[in-house]
Amino acid sequence: MARRTARDLRSENRFEVLHALFELGPSTRQELARHTGLSPATVATIVTEFLSEGVLRVATVENNTGGRPQERLTIDPERGRIVGVDVAETYVDATVYDLELGVLGHGEVALDEHENDPSYVVDGIVRAIEAAVADGGVQQKRILGVGVSMPGHVHPDAGVSVFAPNWDWHDVRIEELLEKVLPVPVYVDNPLKAVVLSEMWFGVGRVVDSMAVVNLGTGVGAGIAIDGSLMRGATNNAGEWGHTLLRLDGRPCRCGRRGCVEAYLGAPGLRTTLAEIDPDHPTLAQSRQRDFVEAVALGLDAGDPALKELALRTSRYLAAALGDLVNLLNIPSVTLTGWTSTALARWLVPAVRAELPDHVMPGSLQGLTVEPSQVPGNAVALGMAAFTLQRFLTRLGLGSPAGTRPRPDPEP
Amino acid sequence: MARRTARDLRSENRFEVLHALFELGPSTRQELARHTGLSPATVATIVTEFLSEGVLRVATVENNTGGRPQERLTIDPERGRIVGVDVAETYVDATVYDLELGVLGHGEVALDEHENDPSYVVDGIVRAIEAAVADGGVQQKRILGVGVSMPGHVHPDAGVSVFAPNWDWHDVRIEELLEKVLPVPVYVDNPLKAVVLSEMWFGVGRVVDSMAVVNLGTGVGAGIAIDGSLMRGATNNAGEWGHTLLRLDGRPCRCGRRGCVEAYLGAPGLRTTLAEIDPDHPTLAQSRQRDFVEAVALGLDAGDPALKELALRTSRYLAAALGDLVNLLNIPSVTLTGWTSTALARWLVPAVRAELPDHVMPGSLQGLTVEPSQVPGNAVALGMAAFTLQRFLTRLGLGSPAGTRPRPDPEP
C-alpha cells in the first residue's frame, strides 16, 4: 500500500494551516494549533516559513495583561494573483483572485460547442484570462499560477485531458499547450474536484467534512469528500454520478450507455423530458442550452403548466439519483451547484426535499441536508484557484531557499 | 470539523503495527517501521507495549555480522481466543480464532427466517458460539471478545441494531442482550463493514488500498474502503449499494422503494428473474433461499437452458450495478463475496467481466479487477474477529497498567 512520505505530510500540514486561516480569519499561532490539531511547534515552524515567503503577514499585535504579546496572522492578499478558469462545453469563465482568494476581475468567452480543435479551446481560455486580468487591472507578471478546469477525464499530474467526450479529445496535453502561451505555471483538473474543494474551503465544509457536491449543467456529476479528503479515485475519475443508472435500458446517454442519470438531469435531458410532455412547447425552440434553461426558469415564474410538469419530473429524477448517492455513501450533506442548479434551485430544491424520504434509507435520512451552494461566484473557478494556491505553496515550500522571495510590485 | 485526538492516533499506530505483522509475518522492528511509515521510535514503543501485554512474542533472534542481534517479532496466537459471528436472515455462523486469527473451531445454527423475536436470535447466536467453542476445544475463560455481525443498520459504539428490516427490529440493544448471557465483551457491527476489514487484512487489501467488496446473499450490499480507510458514513450506514437504483419504477424492493439493485441481485430477486423466464421451473419449488441458489448451481452444471438464461440476466444486472459503483468511486478493485457469489462465481464472474466495458467509463475500466474473494472461510466472521481484536487492543493499550496482564492458561 502507498505510504505518505514526510514530504507529503509537510505539504498537508501547510495546507491545514492555510485552510484554518481561510476558516478562522486572522488568528494567533495558538488558535491555529487548536483548530488544526497540529502541535504548537509544527504550527510555529509553518508560520515562520509562510512569513518569510510573504504568504502571511502580521495583522495585529495584542498585548495581553501579564503574557507575551500575541501576533495575529493573516494571509497577505498582495503576495500575488491567481487565476481560476472554468472551461465548459459552451463557455470559458475566468476569475482573477488575490492570495486570499478575493475576486479582483472576471472575464467570459462563449465557445461554439461544435468546434473541437484544441487550439480553438486554448484561444478561448487565453482570451477569457486576458479579459479577467484587464477587468481586475492586474499586472500579468504578478500572476503566480493559473488553474484550469476541463470537462471530462483529466490527469492533473500529467496535465492531460485524458478523454473529453464533448470534443472527442483523447490525451490532449492541455497544460503544455497552455504553458506555451501563458508565461506562468498551469494546473489542470476536473470541475467535480474543483467544486468539492471550493465547498470544503468556503461552503458546507465549514460544518461537515463528508459531502457530495452535485454539479448540474450540460453534463452532471458529483464531487465527493469523505472525512475531509477529496475523493479522486484510482485515475482521478471518481464522481461520475452522471453515469450511474437511473433506469437500465432507459434513454440513450452520450456516453454510449442507456439510462444514465445525465440523460435525465443534464440540460439536454431536461429538453428530452419537456419534449415528452409537450413536443411542440415553444421553449424547445431555444437552441442554446443555457438559453433553454433560462427560458424554463422564466416560464416557471409565469406558471406554465408543461414547465411545472417538467420541474416535477426533474425533481423526482433528481431525488431518486441523490437517493442512490446517499444510500451508498451515507453522507450528511448534498450541495447543488452548476448553472442549471442556480437557474432552477427555487423549484427543484423544495420538491427534491419532499421526494427524498421515498428514496433514502431511514438510517441515512436523519440529519441529511440538501442545499444550493452558498459559495460565492463561480465555484469551479474558485476551486481551481484554491488548487493552484496549494500547488504554489508546495513548490514554494520545497523549492526556494528562504529569503529569495521576489518583492511584489504594487499594482499601478 | 472533527479532529483526531492523540489517543486516536495512538490506537491507529497500534493497529498499523498489528496489521503489518499480519501482512509480513514475523518481522524485525526495522521492517515494521519501513512497512508502516511510522518512526523507529514509535514502533519500538508499541512493540515494547505489545510484548509486555503478551500480544507479541520474540520468534527468533538473528545475529548479524557486526551488528546488534535482531529480534524477529510475531503475534502470540496463544494470548487468547476471539469469536467472530455472522448472523444472517437464515443462519448463524460462528468461528473461534486464536490471536493470529487462525481458525480453531466452527459452529452453525439455522434460523427460521419467520421468527423475529430478539431472544430467539440471541439464543441462536449463543448456540452457534457454544458449538464453535466445543468444536475447537477452547476454554470459555480464554475468550477475549466476541464480534457479532448483524444484518441491517447497526450502531457499533452503542451496540444497537438500529433497524433490521428482515426482523422489523428497531433499536434493539443487541450488545446488552448478548453481554447478559456471554461473560465477555461483545462488539456488534454490520457485515458490509466486516467483509471490507477481512479483505483489507487478508484479501486484495494486500495489493490495493481502495476497493469495493460486494456481498451477495439474501440482501446485497457493498463494503467500501478508500485509501486504506473503511467507509462507514455518517451513521455507519454506508455501502447500501443494494438500495441504489437499477431501474426507476422497476421491481418492488423489500425496502419499500422500487427498482433497487437488491430486487434483482438478492436471492429472492434471482427467484423473481427465473419466474419471469419460466414460471413453472422446478427449481422454484425450493422454498429455502440457500437451497434455491444451490439448486441453480447444480442445474447450471447440468446445462439447464432456463437457468443459463437466469445466469445471463443476473450477470447483466450485476455488471450494470457494478458499473455504477466503479463510475462513482473509480475504485481499482471489486471483490465478490457472500454465499450467492460463492455458489455462482463460476458462471457470474466471466460473464460480468465480459459485460463490464458496456457499463464502466473507459477512464475507470483500465486495470479494474473483478474477482471472487480469496479470504479463507467466512469473511464476515473473520472481519468481526479482526474488529474485536482491534477493540481488545485499544482497551488493553489504554486501560491496564503495564505488568498486569493475566497469564494465559494452556488449553487442556
TrEMBL record, chains A, B:
Show the InterPro entries listed in the entry: ATPase_NBD (IPR043129), ROK (IPR000600), ROK_cs (IPR049874), WH-like_DNA-bd_sf (IPR036388), WH_DNA-bd_sf (IPR036390)
A UniProt-annotated Pfam family: HTH_24
Q: Which family does it belong to?
A: Belongs to the ROK (NagC/XylR) family.
**Protein's UniProt name:** Transcriptional regulator
Matching entries from Gene3D superfamilies are given as: 3.30.420.40, Winged helix-like DNA-binding domain superfamily/Winged helix DNA-binding domain
- Please report the organism this UniProt entry assigns to the protein: Streptomyces sviceus (strain ATCC 29083 / DSM 924 / JCM 4929 / NBRC 13980 / NCIMB 11184 / NRRL 5439 / UC 5370)
- The domain of life for this entry's organism is Bacteria
Do you know which SUPFAM superfamilies this protein is assigned to? Actin-like ATPase domain (SSF53067), Winged helix' DNA-binding domain (SSF46785)
